[in-house]
Amino acid sequence: MSFSTLVSDLHFRDNANDGASRASRPSARSTTGSNARSYASTAATSVSVSGDISSQLHGGYSHPLARSWQAERQLTKSMLIYPLFISDQDEEEALIPSLPNQHRRGINKLVPHLEPLVRKGLRSVILFGVPMAPNVKDALGTAADDPEGPVIQSIRLLRARFPSLFIVADVCLCEYTSHGHCGILRDDGSLNNTLSVDRISDVAMAYAEAGAHCVAPSDMNDGRIRAIKLKLIEAGIAHKVVLMSYSAKFSGCMYGPFRDAAGSCPSFGDRKCYQLPPGGRGLARRAIHRDIGEGADIIMVKPASSYLDIISDAKEIGKDMPIAAYQVSGEFAMIHAAAAAGVFDIKTMAFESTEGILRAGATIVVSYFTPQFLDWLSS
Fold this sequence. Notes:
Layout: H1 3-21, H2 28-50, H3 64-69, E1 80-87, E2 93-95, E3 103-106, H4 110-120, E4 124-130, H5 150-161, E5 166-171, H6 193-210, E6 214-217, H7 224-234, E7 242-249, H8 256-262, H9 281-293, E8 298-302, H10 308-317, E9 323-326, H11 329-340, H12 346-360, E10 364-366, H13 370-376
Parallel strand pairs: 1-3, 1-4, 1-10, 4-5, 5-6, 6-7, 7-8, 8-9, 9-10
Antiparallel strand pairs: 2-3
Helix pairs in contact: 1-2, 6-7, 9-10
C-alpha cells in the first residue's frame, strides 16, 4: 500500500465514522488520532510482512555507536605508521612547502618532535633518510648504509629513547644516488637488477643490525625480498626482523611532494620500467604472489586511494597476512588543497579516505595524518 493510498483510506474511514459515533466518543480528536496511528501501524506492518522484511535497515545504524559497529575494521592508533624525513643536517627543521605541515628534521630535532606524539599513543614510524651535504650522493648510493648517516643514527637514537616505538626503515637508494633511481644502473641507463638487489639487501641488513624492527624495501627490483630474507637468516636475526615489502608500488604522478621532501627525483627518465603501470592489476597480483613466496611478512600497496582494488586483491592473496597501504604525499596534499578550497572538512575527509583504505582490506596505514589522528581518535 502506498503512502498516498493510506492517507486517502484514513480520510474516508474518518468521515464515515464521524456521524455515527460522534456522540459516543469522549474526545473525537484524540480518538481519531489514535485510530489513525493504529491503522498506520497495522498497515506499515502488513507492508513489511508482505514484502521482504530484511529491507528495513535504518534502525541498524540510527545511533552513532551502532553506526560504528557496522565497520568491519575501525581505525585505531596501532594501525598507523608515521613517515619521518631525517636530514643529515643535525639541527635542520625545514617545512616542506608541497607537503602541508610536514618537515624535514635533523637528528637533534627528532626527540622533541616525537615525545608528545608518543605520549598521545604513537606506535610506529617509518624513516626516510635525506642526505643534504654536498657531494654525498654517488652512483652506488654508498651513503645509504653509512653508520654515521641519518637513518642508522636515528634507529639507534629512537631505540634508546622510545623503547616501545616500532621502527620501520624504508630501504631504497633513490635518495642517495646521484641519478635518483632506485638501484645501480648499466651504462645505457637501465637498471642492473642483479647489482641493485645485492646492494639493496646490504642496506636492509645494515638497518636491521642497527636495531630496526622492520625493513621495508621500496625499490621494486625483482628478487630483493628473497635476497634480504636469506641474509637475515644467515645473520641469525630473521626471527626478530619484520620484512615488509612494497609489493604493489605503482608509477604515477602522486609522489611529487615526497620527492621534494626526500630529494629523490630522477635526474633523467622515469621509474616506469620497475614500478608498476597504473593499469597493471595482473602484474600487481603476480608481484604480491612472488613476494609472499620469497618470505615477505607484510605486503604493502602504494598509493592507496586510487588502488583500493589492489588492496582488496592483496588481502585475498595474502589472507593470513597483514596488509599495509601507503596514503602517499600526493593524496595527502590533494586532501589539504580541497579542504583549503572549502570542498569539505579536512578531518571528515581524512577519516573517510582512511576508512575506505581499511574497508578495502588494509590493516596498516602509512599516513601523514598520523599526528592529527592521535588527537582525533582520543577525543
